[in-house]
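ok so for the tutorial part 2 we go from a plain amino acid sequence to predicted C-alpha cells. step 1 is just haveing the sequence, like this:
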Amino acid sequence: MQSILKRFDNTLGRNKRDEESGADLNSIKAGDILISQEPLRFRFLTLDTKDGRKWYVAFTGYGEMEKGESTSLLTVSIEDQLKNTLDSEGVAGIIINPWSTAFLMEKELIQLMFKAEEDDEQ
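step 2 — the prediction. this is what the C-alpha cells look like for a chain of 122 residues:
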C-alpha cells in the first residue's frame, strides 16, 4: 500500500487534494477509490508447488489471508481473477486458501466452469 501511496504522492503532490474527487491524500483508507494519472502495476501473489508449477493465490476472506505470510490485499471479483488466471502465461491455475484447506483450480477446470456457464445461458 505504501508504494501505491508514493505513486499518488509523486503524481499529485503530498498534502494536496485530488482536484477531480476532492480526496485528501493523507486520509486514504481501505475501500476508498482513487484515480492515478500514471499507470500502476500490480503483481499477484504466487506460490510454487513441489512439482515446479506456479499458482496464483486467492482467499475467501481476510481471516484466511492472515493465516499466512504478510501481504497487501487487492479485492477482485472471483470471475475477474479466474479470467486473469486463464489469460496469464506461466501459471498452472489458482490456489484458494493456501494456508488452510487449500483448493487447487487448474486452468482446465476454470475453462470447464466458464464453458458450463456459457452452455447454461444458451
